[in-house]
Description:
Layout lengths: L2 E5 L12 H10 L9 E3 L1 H7 L3 E6 L11 H16 L14 H9 L1 E5 L3 H13 L2 E6 L5 H8 L5 E3 L4 H14 L3 E3 L10 H10 L1 H9 L6 E5 L4 H13 L7 E7 L4 H8 L27 H8 L2 E5 L1 H12 L16 H11 L4 H7 L6 E6 L6 H9 L3
Pyridoxal-5'-phosphate binds next to helix 5 and helix 10.
Amino acid sequence: MTLQMQKSPFTYRVRGGQVINTDVIRFYRSVPSYQVTPLYRLTNLAHQYGVGEISVKDEGQRFGLEAFKGTGGLYAMAQYIASKAGLDPQNLTYDQLQTPAVRKLADQITFYTVTDGNHGRGIAWAAKQLGTHAVVNMPRGSQQVRAQHIRDLGAPCQITDLNYDQVVKFTSDQADRDPHGILIQDMAWDDYRTIPTDIADGYSIMADEFLHQLDQVPTHIFLQAGVGQFSAGMINALIDALPQDQLPTITIVEPAAVACYYLSAEQADGRPHTVPGSPQTIMAGLNCQTPSAISWPVIRDTARFYGTLTDDVSAKGMRQLANPAGNDHAIVAGESGAAAFAFVNEVLSNPDYRDLRNTLGLDEDSQIIVINTEGATDPVNYQRIINANK
Ligand SMILES: Cc1ncc(COP(=O)(O)O)c(C=O)c1O
């Protein structure tokens, strides 16, 4: 089986009252390098598959970083510096962070982080924008090319011989020993929530953009999850922006080898569960064994379906995006970036998954949106996959 899917066993419950979204929008509109990323309509493909529309938001073009992660990193870093400088975090604009006094303060701070690539690159870039410092550590097995991207932005970056949990502990200790150090992680746990919440809020700028770019409110959104902060950021923003009866059907998509949300739904006890062992997948950004503490409740209460895909399906999705139908726009999507598209692409193209298509309610009225969360962040692997026959 290359795809699996289950219905959510949890009660659907939308908690309103989010107000952060407008702060994020105001902040990003004040950032000089901020540009809305493109949204491509794959109209020919949608026609071929018998659905209304398939839209792909291309985060491979975000801030020249080839991934969406900078939207969270810059916002969270800005919030932290603002709080230290006594600025109102809810009305923050970029120029307030560029005054000599605030830049002097920022220059004393060092942000420590762990990454398998995209998050660290976003943090290194954000530090450069705000005149502060970043130190980036990577778990063993991380790609040299990804480390080099981070160093190229001026942040020291080492690939350690530690696993993810160990390297987070190591980095957190490093931050604690530095009197001006702070851990900036894209994952929350029991007593570490403030910065990851700001990161997920920062991601919500993408949803604000695509809701303005789309002609119609989407009926279906497929979101690829690692620890789930990206998905929770999108969901919170949709809840903010849309009346409850217009919220799209949400499907969470994960690699078959490391599907912590799928597992948690299967266990159905309302708590998050961890995938054991050392799973392997080409979808490096989604290789996460434990749901983020702040994302789990958001996803549990709003996702209707949980799906998994194998690496070959992700690769097939990447090739489909690179070689589009008719005059649809070609999209460069990396292994994790293509995952949500790849899932729905397989559901719609493979007759074996007719039942999944029906369960999801995908028909000629469906307006589907997915987000390509990364471009060719590992160019050698990207070319190898794109040039493979099948
Ligand atoms: C390209 C890409 N897509 C999606 C994700 C998933 O984000 P999250 O871990 O917040 O679920 C990541 C995480 O690193 C990523 O790098």
